[in-house]
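Section 5.1 Outputs to date
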Amino acid sequence: VLEIFAIHVRENNCIRGIVVEDEEINLCVFADDLITFLPNVNSYKHLVESLNGFEQCSGFEVNSDKNGSIFFQGQDPNTSIVELGISKLEIPIKMLGIHWNYNQQQRDKLN
């Protein structure tokens, strides 16, 4: 069921991703985990709209205890966090075997 939502996100032009080596990536799915890579607040708002619709149709819900945000690529870490109702994740964290950190030297060392 999660893959159906992932297809929708990948095909939705309003949900932009980050560009890595000339390829746009906006999400990663592994088992029942979904990680999104969004460059701006507008993409996040469209993702939430889509997620709300998906929840209504499928009956599945996001585990709010497991969501949060990390801001990269020059994004202000405090950008609209209160407005969006999401929490800033403490870092470093490890997702799918990759360490994430605001400090590139520490991130490179951990990986």
